[in-house]
Amino acid sequence: MADLPAQQRGAAPRRPTRLNMAWESDVAYKFRRSPVALVSFLVMMILVLGAVFAPWIAPHDPFDPGTLNLMNGFTAPMEPNAFTGDTFWLGTDDQGRDVFSTILFGLRISLFVGFAAVCFAMVLGVTLGLLAGWFGGWTETLIMRVADVQLTFPAILVAMLIFGIAKGITPIEYRDQMAIWVLIFAIGLSDWVQFARVVRGATLVEKNKEYVAAARLIGRSGPAIMVRHILPNVLSPVLVIATISLALAIIAEATLSFLGVGAPPTQPSLGTLIRIGQGFLFSGEWWILFFPALTLLALALSVNLLGDWLRDALNPRLK
Amino acid sequence: MLAYVIRRVGQSILVLLVVGLVAFSMFTFVGDPIDNMLGQERTRADIERLRTQLGLDQPFPVQYWKFLQNAVQGDFGISYRQGRPVAEIISERLPATLELATVSAIFAITLGVGLGVLTAIRRDGLLSNVIMTVSLIGVSLPTFLIGILLIYLFSVELDMLPSFGRGEVVDLGWWTTGLLTESGLKALILPAITLGLYQMTLIMRLVRSEMLEVLRQDYIRFARARGLRERAVNFRHALKNTLVPVITVTGLQLGSIIAFAIITETVFQWPGVGLLFINAIQFVDIPVMAAYLMLISVVFVGINLIVDLLYFAIDPRLRIDTGKAH
Questions:
Q1: Which residues of A touch B255 (CB under 8 A)?
Q2: Residue A253 and residue A142: Cα distance in Å, rounded?
Q3: For residue range A85-134, what is the model confidence (pLDDT) as tens digits?
Q4: B271: closest CA of chain A, how far (Å)
Q5: Nearest residue of A to residue B148 by CA position?
Q6: What percent of chain B has pLDDT over 70?
Q7: pTM attached to this predicted model
Q8: Are the beta carbons of A255 and B282 separated by less than 8 Å?
Q9: How sure is the predictor about A193, in pLDDT bands with cuts at 50, 70 and 90?
Q10: How confident is the model over B81-98, as pLDDT tens digits?
Q11: pLDDT for A225-258, tens place per residue?
Q12: How far is the C-alpha of A91 from the C-alpha of A98, rounded, in Å?
């Protein structure tokens, strides 16, 4: 902040606090008035908190073989087990693992992969978009051509392919350990195009505005103008795309894990749990499948609705 | 017009060359083909001989050119996992995927357009509202969950339809079809619905919003004033004018149907190329992955090209501006 003009720095104390400003803003007002946004936010927060505090909330540690009792296998929800008499809220799977606990830990992995992948895609997309918009010329042509080619294919297919290639490069003994990171890399890399396109478009508009000319006049360098002047002005559509991408990334992660090309059984995400649960669909143990699926649905739906609401509330010129 | 067509075709070929480069790089950088082909007991002379034999000692562009030549002829080498030519494996699996995709596309288009028109005409009807709400849920549900839900309903609870496989197939020389037997048709129902549902809701919503737009126009009011029947107004005048965007989106969605077949095929263990691809990823079977990549690229780039050209042919307004299609 040191290089801000003096008047601006002097004006800061007289303004209301940031929190106050945020509460009074249009978006916050619209948020308080929208039941859909409030409910989706609430659901999302419950799931996020459940995931973050999973080690403390979960009644059992599903990854500690010492606490497992095979006799508890296939216990139905809310019914005492026939042999041990233990009761589990959401039942247990074939190895006697508490379904509620595995969901909490699965949620942790799903959310982590989703957030990390979107962050990766955002940083990559915003950087490339800024560069393309700012420099133009062959930089722009190259970046946008690659984006066009990638956009020809569905993101999930691109993610699968990247996952496959990355898996091939990783030595076999590290594959399971690296799977989560490979997954983040694959989903992130399949999803940067939207960010780059929107940021490039916005940058093209912004770079001809007077404040950019003014910044140039006072001698700021190209990178400084890009990061400190243009970037803050193109951020609101980026935020919307990030929220919508989060829902897509969570579903993409679940899909890949369900297909068996994502999170390994040693670190099960919601998708992996659904994959495992599908095996018990015909034998009548519906809860092993049902509860992870319901959690995934609640998560995807709430993030999706929140993204839609945010798009309408910020109303940037998005498609 | 001709300049536009030539440029579009040129772009498509460029994309295919780039994808070919990616596929080729997979062979070169992911794992060593020599390692894959020679066993533990190998001498330096063996390695050198195989290297020369496979042309791996030649410069990169020469190798890439060879790869392209082979790819155009349908030769993608031998599957690391199955030890058979990739082209043979894929051509065995292709009919299953194509049948599934075609039936899903027909399902999505007919039902999508039909329901779209219905919900647009009876905008405030109870049925329309129900359909719209259900479609919203349908869009939010991941494909694999829809598949599992259908299996649970129709295979586990009602025990009406099979939950996996293709049923009995009839061999027609180079093509195997499940469309001629009862069990084959039954096995097709659930996967086809799963695969087509997303596209159906998409088409339905598009047709509905386009119809609502068109129904407000003056010429529709004029058609009504002329005393034309409702049906003639709705279908001959209104629907016809919504078709340009519908054809574009539908065309582009056809590619997605083939890509999303990967998920559906895995849920229903449908023996198509999608399932083959997933298994190839699980076992890092590079030749199969590369071949699938090339195959799906040709499909995608081809569909994109056809849709662009079709768009150009349907909408005369675009012909003035010979600029970019997107």
A1: 154
A2: 29
A3: 677 777 777 777 888 888 999 999 999 999 999 999 999 999 999 999 98
A4: 15
A5: A278
A6: 90
A7: 0.82
A8: no
A9: very high
A10: 777 888 888 888 888 898
A11: 888 888 888 888 888 889 889 988 999 999 999 9
A12: 6
Chain B residue whose CA is closest to A176: B282
Residues of B in contact with A157 (CB under 8 A): 259, 262, 296
Is the distance from CB of B291 to CB of B90 less than 8 angstroms? yes
A182 vs chain B: nearest CA distance in angstroms?
Answer: 13
- Token pair of B145, please? 């969950």
User: B213-259, pLDDT tens digit by residue?
Assistant: 888 888 888 888 888 887 777 777 788 778 777 887 787 777 788 87
A111 residue type, one letter: L
Q: Does B180 touch chain A (CB under 8 A)?
A: no
CA distance A205 to A316: 13
